[in-house]
Design goal:
Length: 265
Amino acid sequence: MEALIDEVAEVLVKSRYAIALTGAGVSTESGIPDFRGPSGIWTKDPEAERRAYEAYALFLRDPKAFWEDYLSRPSILGPLEKAQPNPSHYALAELEEMGILKCIITQNVDGLHEKAGSENVIEFHGNAFKIRCVDCGARYPKSDFDLVSMKERGQLPPLCRRCGGVLKPDVVYFTEPIPRDVIARSLEEVRKCDVMLVCGTSLVVYPAAELPRLAKRKVPPATVIEVNLEPTSATFDGTSDYFLQGKTGEILPKIVEAVKKKLAK
Ligand code: NAD
Ligand code: ZN
């Protein structure tokens, strides 16, 4: 592992434009469960997965009923406001601070990369603390709306203050398209990158899982470095040039240390 960490650090130091793609695995060490890891939410509760698949159809069919149902359940990810970044988030923030990492595309909705100090973060699947207009794409802090009293007064669904469109949680649901601004920014980052650091994602949710493949198909191909507890399809199909098996909270800080040593030389 030490030799592999050293090699990966060398790749990062020599990179021109490194970016990261992160998934729920970087936040499990902050106490937020993932979906498909060994103690994941779907792994333990397939019924919750079925409900999640139906949420977007319900929103489209009946936004009022969707919001009433939404407000009647606790978040499946638990109390996200209390979660704090862990060494994985801080390591990536430090790589950005050093000028090596240019952008993080995260599938997480917990806001922990920003909390750890990362600045250029694309939230591919939205943010759990925001709501978004399905017509004009405007985003608002959820706390701007008193959703509970709106429910009591029969005023759901909340409406956009800019265009009057219906608001939905910013989090992207299964079968919902990725918002256009987010896809455009992400593709631009992939176009620019020569290294992609893929951390804590099972790479089964599309189109996010397509991003490392797009990076790999470029001419010349980007170097893909994968850090995960377990191998994924990218490990097996040759998308990943490097696979570092273990916890991101342990491996990413080691990579940062190795990078620092090289820069000090
Ligand atoms: P996933 O649950 O499908 O996969 C997580 C992967 O991370 C698994 O392969 C698991 O083995 C690995 N992992 C778990 N803990 C790890 C650790 N400490 N170090 C290294 N690897 C670890 O997650 P996904 O690929 O991100 O896709 C699930 C979707 O669910 C995401 O798109 C996201 O929108 C959403 N989600 C978000 C959060 C969050 O915001 N924190 C949490 C759960 C799910
Ligand atoms: Zn709007």
